[in-house]
Amino acid sequence: IAGITQAPTSQILAAGRRMTLRCTQDMRHNAMYWYRQDLGLGLRLIHYSNTAGTTGKGEVPDGYSVSRANTDDFPLTLASAVPSQTSVYFCASSDDPTLGNEQFFGPGTRLTVL
Amino acid sequence: GQNIDQPTEMTATEGAIVQINCTYQTSGFNGLFWYQQHAGEAPTFLSYNVLDGLEEKGRFSSFLSRSKGYSYLLLKELQMKDSASYLCAVQDSNYQLIWGAGTKLIIKP
């Protein structure tokens, strides 16, 4: 693994189904983030984690949950998918954000909910 | 509320210079980032400004005026590969990034 990876690359999902998007980084970054990107809108923060064992809500957390059992992994779960969750999802990580460190992004997961 | 404004789209000619502006109103300020995003790809980091002034990095420069809530990204000697979206993001009082919608830059030969 080099950097930050996400799986799956893309997914078509029936409404009401449960789905977990996976994110793994090998940079030993403490902070990790989940964003969604929709046409015409900026990246919007869903959830974040400043360090393993802690998580926080971002701008648009409803319908999503996260866990941070260890430093490397930060899965995002949609408990019961709805069509409005159709989006491109990016996972990102960074060193201490209070020091102006940039975020590194995974390649994204394109999710379609029908 | 929090607001980041940047033009939706700009067009420039190969070899020329282009300036992409970003204005912001946020709850606190801990720095401003510029990212590049090619179509279908992830954003990649370009620059970071926390103090007023110009930061130069090769063909790309970024300027910040905190008192005016204003930044710009300057791209010189434009190349076709610079065709991409450019995202402005402000780090707020909680050190989270607030993102603009991005400026799509089209380079014509």
User: Pairing-aware structural class of the strands and helices of chain A?
Assistant: mainly beta
Say how many strands of chain B there are. 11
Mean pLDDT of chain B: 96
- Basic shape of chain B: globular
Helix content of chain B: under 10%
Following the backbone from N to C, one meets helices and strands of chain A in this order, namely EEEEEEEEEEE
Rg of chain B is 13 Å
Report the count of strand segments of chain A. 11
CA-CA gap between termini of chain B:
40 Å
Provide a count of the helices of chain A: 0
Structural category of chain B: mainly beta
Low-confidence stretches of chain A: none
Q: Main β-sheet of chain B, in a few words?
A: 6 strands, mixed
- How do the helices and strands follow one another from N- to C-terminus of chain B? EEEEEEEEEEE
Strand content of chain B: over 45%
Arithmetic mean pLDDT of chain A = 96
- Low-confidence parts of chain B, pLDDT < 50 over ≥5 residues? none
- Cα radius of gyration of chain A in angstroms: 13 Å
Outline type of chain A: globular
